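Our consortium's second objective concerns turning raw sequence data into structural hypotheses that experimental partners can test. To show how far this objective has progressed, the report includes one record in full. It was chosen at random from the queue rather than selected for favorable results. The single chain below, 688 residues long, was entered without modification.
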Amino acid sequence: MAVTASARTTRPPTVTSRTGAAAVTATLVLLVTALAIVDITQGTAAVGAPEVWKALTGRADPADASVVIASRLPRMTAGLLVGLALGMAGAALQAVSRNVLASPDTLAVNAGSYLALGVAAVTGVSLPLLASSGIAFVGGLAAAGIVLGLSSLGAGTVRLVLAGSALTLGLTAVTEGLLLLFPRETEGLYRWNQGSIAQTGFDGVLQMAPLGAVGLLGFLLVARRIDALALGDDAARGLGVPVRTTRVTVVVLAALLSTAAVTLAGPIGFVGLCAPALVRPLARRFRAFTRTRASIPVAGLVGAALVLGSDVLLRALVPADVAVAVPTGVVTSLVGAVFLIVMATRVRDGAGAAAPDRLHIRSRAVFLTTTAVLAAALVGVTIAAVLMGDSKLLLGDVVNWAQGRSGRAVTFVLDTRVPRVLAALLAGAALALAGTLVQAVTRNPLAEPGVLGVSGGAAVGAVLLVTTVPVAGTWSVAGAAFAGAAASSVLVFGLAARGGFQQNRLVLVGFGVATGASALISLLIILTDPFNATKALTWLSGSTYGRTFPDVVPLAIVLAVGLLVAVLRRTELDLVSLDEDTPRLLGLPLARGRLGFLALSVLLSGTAVAAAGTIGFVGLVAPHAARALVGRPHARVVPVAVLLGATLVCTADLVGRTVIAPAQLGAGLMTAVIGTPYFLYLLVRSRR
């Protein structure tokens, strides 16, 4: 009798699990079906549900039938296919890496595909869809391989996000450089990169569908191996599973699915991250979903629901003529950014983002020599930047201009060139100082305004003003940028402070905010008129083009105040960067001091973005290099970092406007190309 009672207490949960899993799957299928039906009834044409039904039954007006068959059905089918592919790819990547943040987005698969297609477009060769998919597959797979290699096959959550976001920034910068240099050949590529499921006919869907089927079949064939990996590498090897081969196979299949989706609709952001995360609570309730053969298809269904749901929601809330201009990828990126921020508050990862800098003891002579060399280098770069450009000048011309005795041509050149040089110098110095303050306060050697989303928030504020009020003045743009930086920093630092500025939470929340800011900027650019969109895109590349002397005045004032505070509070900076206990033992008001330094870094970042656009990695590279050269005392780090930042941005601006003259590349693109390898090197060094 006891045995019977025991059986009765243990059997129902198993039966309920199977029955419940089947019910959940059926519900998801019905949800996706309902969304698909609603999606084909939405659009700019006055073709509602009755007309759709008539078109499907062959009784509709030819014009209505053309809308349904040639546009709406392909769009719905593309959304279904893209969601399935990305959901399955994300679930598989998270399973083999045992990392809840692994996805095509965080592995830079989309950025790698974007660059590969950009390079192909530059050649001017018209490629069929399957060939484009092959090129995108190679680029995406290479990017994923680099990120997984740097993050120990995804074992470290923060390391994965850092490596993926850094590589994404670098690859995207190169691609945007190609867009600016070859506008005719790459026409439409920027809009494609925002991700849209709109289609003209079924050709693309029919060509990509077999790739999706191959990916799903491959996952099902290696499902048992993936389940074994969940037990740990050693246990999997004990069961005879080839661990490395299995991981490589799954990554290749995931890259295949991701690039099929990218080729068909462009990058649809964060579906591969959100879909598996929504399945995990189901797996805790229904044991059937803990198995790969069930969880991956279900994640695909959730992904399809996310893509179709985003498209339906957009067209339901926004007028049809506006909704048609908004890519689906922008909507999913906004949703995914919020989702990532929520996840960041819950993720725990024992592996830090990076090891602290080693304590270097440098003599005073080394500090003075380094400072003198950097000052000389800065003077040399500044002189070269003033003299070189589309018109070559001599030092005598500059002297005459300063004295008001130059000719009209020289006056015009220097009146436009000198403010650009000053904007680059001051922006580089301000970003370097902001990075130094952030790294000291958070004690995170990989923190910087760009990575933490502060620069992205400033960019949103400035672009919003630039695109809506084209006649806005310098101080207005600076104010808008600061407001955006302040809003993003309150969100990032507020959530991170709850955990004592833990590296994991700080970096992940910052990454989510930066992603959301990027999506908002894309939305503003797409919806604005073409003139303002071009102006915003140029500004976002970190360009100093068109700067005037009034434009650099706010930045000069803020930088002067920041340097004064940093020098006067250098000892407090040293103490704050040590640990939590030492400042308190010495009676230092840690919370107030930390808040003050963070507010100053936000002010510096916001005004730098307003003056020179978004320029990445300077706030990371300059403080790191300064500490390596002169040690960790901030009395030495601050001046050296400021000199390095100013020199780096001024050099990037000079190279961007002279090497390929008369074409120009923004300083932000150049610093991203320079900073990405250095950032990845820091990740490799910290792993060692």
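The partners drew two points from this record. Confidence is low (pLDDT under 50) at residues 1-16, 349-356. The chain has 29 helices and no strands. Both points have been shared with the crystallography group to help prioritize constructs.
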